Amino acid sequence: MTARPESPYPMLPVPEALEVVLAQAHPLPAQTVPLAQALGHILAADVVAREPLPPFPASVKDGYAVVAADGPGDYPVVGEVTAGRVADFRLSPGTVAYITTGAPLPPGADAVVMVEETERLPTDDGTPRVRIHARVKPGDDVRPVGVDVAAGQQVLAAGEYIGPAEVGLLATAGVTQVPVYPRPRVAVLSTGDELVEPDQPLGPGQIRDSNRAMLLAAVAANGGIPVDLGIAGDSQEALEAGVQRGLAEADILLSSGGVSMGELDLIKPLLEHAGTVHFGRIHMKPGKPLTFATAQVAGRKKLIFGLPGNPVSSLVTFYLMAVPAMRQMAGWPNPHLPRVQAHLAQPLPLDAHRPEYHRATLRWEPSLNQGRGGFLATSTGSQASSRLLSMRTANALLELPQRAGRLEAGDVVTALLIGPLG
Ligand SMILES: Nc1nc2c(c(=O)[nH]1)N[C@H]1C(S)=C(S)[C@@H](COP(=O)(O)OP(=O)(O)OC[C@H]3O[C@@H](n4cnc5c(N)ncnc54)[C@H](O)[C@@H]3O)O[C@H]1N2
Ligand code: MOO
Q: By the 8 A CB rule, do 62 and 79 touch?
């Protein structure tokens, strides 16, 4: 009797595999990008404001600049200051000046009365007059110099994510060349003789290549720069050429297909040859044959994920392993997918042999937790690795334990977020 074929690769638990991946993923060398391209990057240096904001005492309201000690009464309006101008006069006690929101307070004034607390009076000599109804204190409705941002204050720290507010703070500080960690370039190669381009009719035995379009989109959606390597057939030469091109052009290479036990599953041996294979199987479903390798190319370490060919397996393992690696290379201090608790909307069968990452759609349900609210997880249905419809509308992967039996509706599980909670 001959020995049964068996994979030589130990099956790593997912948390251990993720540690192995993250130990290899290092932030890319920092660069400078124009402010208009900074969104979505991680800042690589602290940002300090040189000037205070506001740089002058500024009115908070549309109304009248006054000397607070004057109190309510009728006053001549001796001038006006609108935002962007400065007063060419000094306000004396017993007079007021018209002012708009954001305009510099004229010298001599120490407070603002909003227009709703005043009344225009008829004029006899051409000088406008106003009745002030409100009593104000010095400083009322005035933003002192530096109240929003002090000169020398640190407004952003290295390691922070640049969202819209941070773009605004960079603009406030006058930083138009922004030090950031670049987005990783991620190349995507589909493998398999059965694959044709999505615009092709299907011949016998053929299917359309869905993984490449999907993974290129997933790379872009997760902050990477996608690089399309096309389809490589199941030959050593074609695969080798695809892998070499990916390693030359990108920081991370994603291949899909050809990593399990078939005679044409050539990716593992090819990666053993091209670099170091760190693991060749993980203890989970779907995506058991995920293979992770690194290669040194022109002095730079490249990461390679041999994703399983089944469309669901490739996308799930992309989220679990490649997204954290991409984030770490892009400078994220915490590269992990966010995790929340969710209540099951229906019973779910468990797998006795592997922990499962069950695709589900999470939404906020106000009636959960005795009316305090919580996330309700609705399964996407049959979880076959080939059924991409099981990823449709999924914004979470439920972390189901390896065990016989099932979970019941209402049971609480942890969920990794892979999409917006819309
Ligand atoms: N004897 C064993 N067979 C298999 C095992 C095993 O342990 N022993 N593992 C199974 C598991 S789990 C998975 S997952 C798959 C992964 O297989 P491969 O990575 O080798 O992928 P392929 O065999 O090339 O393809 C699998 C499946 O996916 C389709 N595919 C591949 N690429 C694409 C693409 N770009 N777009 C759409 N569909 C694609 C392909 O046609 C196959 O149907 O292996 C099991 N087998
Ligand atoms: O792990 Mo495979 O992904 O079950 O189909």
A: no
All domains in the chain, ordered by first residue: 11-29+184-329 (3.40.980.10), 32-52+149-181 (3.90.105.10), 58-143 (2.170.190.11), 339-417 (2.40.340.10)
**pTM passes above 0.90:** yes
Ligand nearest to the CA of 264: 1
Q: Could you tell me the CA-to-CA distances from 38 to 14, 122, 149, 235, 245 in Å, in that order?
A: 33, 54, 21, 42, 28
Beta strands in 217-344 (DSSP E): 225-232, 252-256, 276-279, 281-283, 291-297, 300-307, 339-344
- Which residue minimizes the CA distance to atom 4 of ligand 2? 286
CA of 273 to the centre of ligand 1 (A): 22
Q: Is the pLDDT of residue 104 over 90?
A: yes
The 10s digit of each residue's pLDDT in 37-53 is 999 999 999 999 999 99
Give the relative orientation of helices 236-249 and 267-274 as an angle to the nearest 10 degrees: 50
329: three-class secondary structure by DSSP = helix
Ligand 1 proximal residues by C-beta, below 6 Å: 190, 192, 194-195, 207, 209-212, 256-262, 265, 286, 288-289, 308-311, 313, 385-386
pLDDT tens by residue, 289-326: 999 999 999 999 999 999 999 999 999 999 999 999 99
Cis check: omega of the bond before 366, within 30 degrees of 0: no
Q: Are 252 and 271 in contact (CB under 8 A)?
A: no
* pLDDT above 70 coverage of the chain, percent: 100
> Can you tell me the distance from the alpha carbon of 212 to that of 229, in angstroms, rounded to the nearest whole number?
9
Which amino acid is located at 58 in the chain?
A
